[in-house]
Write a structure and sequence with these properties.
This protein is an alpha+beta fold. The protein contains three helices and six strands, in the order βββαββααβ. The strands form two sheets. A three-stranded antiparallel sheet has the order 1-2-3, with no helix packed on it. A three-stranded mixed sheet has the order 4-5-6, with helices on one face.
């Protein structure tokens, strides 16, 4: 969410097929993720996509709430996506629930979610523009 200082370097992920519908992904720093179309040994690609969207927005929200100097203590994200029946079976509806812990005023929590959604989350802005995404914020 930091302000850009120029073009971002390319993002590189290397994938190696390991069996049936399974790929092992590795990033430039050695981080690893297993993607499995059968969901037997890892996340399916669509689960990984939802995870990326939730994490992207979550990271933004944490940074924004910390900059606002709220009583932020923690965050969990639940995300559920519905896909169309016919190929390419893209997501056409996504629901996100942000559970924010701490003494965070509702207006600041909702503003943090809105800023991530409208301005900062690069994963969201990479997705199709016709996806109906619904967000909900809960303060605990």
């Amino acid at each position: 969410m930091s302000e850009p200082t120029g073009p971002a370097p390319p993002t590189r992920i290397d994938l190696a097929w390991s069996s049936v519908q399974r790929f092992d992904a590795t990033n430039a720093t050695g981080g690893a993720l297993t993607l499995d179309g059968n969901k037997a040994e890892g996340f399916s690609p669509t689960e990984a996509l939802l995870s990326s969207l939730g994490a992207c927005m979550g990271i933004d929200i944490v940074i924004i709430l910390e900059k606002m100097r709220t009583g932020f203590k923690g965050l969990s994200v639940s995300i559920e996506g519905e896909r169309v029946a016919e190929p390419p079976r893209y997501f056409d509806h996504i629901r996100m629930l942000f559970r924010i812990r701490g003494d965070v005023p509702r207006d600041k929590a909702e503003r943090a979610v809105r800023l991530s959604f409208e301005k900062y989350c690069s994963v969201f802005h990479t997705l199709r523009k016709d996806i109906d995404i619904v967000t909900e914020t809960v303060i605990e």
